[in-house]
TrEMBL record:
The keyword Membrane applies. The keyword Membrane applies. Keywords: Membrane, Transmembrane, Transmembrane helix. It comes from the Bacteria. InterPro entries: DUF4293. The chain crosses the membrane at residues 7-26, 60-78, 90-107, 127-144. It holds the Pfam family DUF4293. This is DUF4293 family protein.
Length: 158
């Protein structure tokens, strides 16, 4: 039943986690040297690379976790007949989204050390989308639980 409200929340969750893969997560600009460091879901790299700058750092863990969370959300949406499985998948998705946030935070910390430690970096939209996904996951789980309680109350009336 795709028309249920939790299905809408899960679809929005999947879109938010897919967007993490394509949007920048963190950036840092050093005005003295003109260098900019950008963190995406697949790499941590300098935007204006000079000859002496180090090679980009692969951050595929962020992309893998975000894609896994999106896939679990879509699978969870399609399992509308088994609400207990949906709740378990919701808990798995919670862990995946928190891991995505943790990996993003870790790699932004690595980036902080790569370029002028005195200047702080800024978190971009790709960092805040997993937080939105957490909220959507909580809402979806709440409505799944509410459906289960409704079904149980109807069984009691029979």
């Amino acid at each position: 039943m795709i028309q249920r409200i939790q299905s809408v929340f899960l679809l929005l969750l999947a879109l938010a986690m897919l967007s993490v893969v394509f949007l920048p997560i963190w950036s840092k600009l050093d005005p003295a040297s003109g260098q900019e460091l950008v963190l995406t879901a697949t790499k941590l790299t300098y935007a204006n690379a000079d000859a002496g700058i180090s090679v980009p750092t692969n951050t595929y863990a962020i992309a893998a976790l975000a894609l896994a969370a999106a896939a679990v959300a879509i699978f969870e949406m399609l399992q509308y007949r088994n609400r207990f499985l949906q709740l378990k998948l919701g808990m798995l998705n919670l862990v995946l989204i928190v891991a995505t946030l943790g990996a993003s935070f870790y790699y932004s910390g690595v980036g902080e050390k790569m370029l002028n430690i005195k200047i702080p970096g800024t978190y971009e939209a790709g960092f805040y989308l997993p937080t939105l996904a957490l909220l959507l996951n909580v809402l979806a789980n709440r409505f799944i639980r509410r459906d289960e309680q409704l079904v149980r109350s109807m069984d009691r009336l029979r």
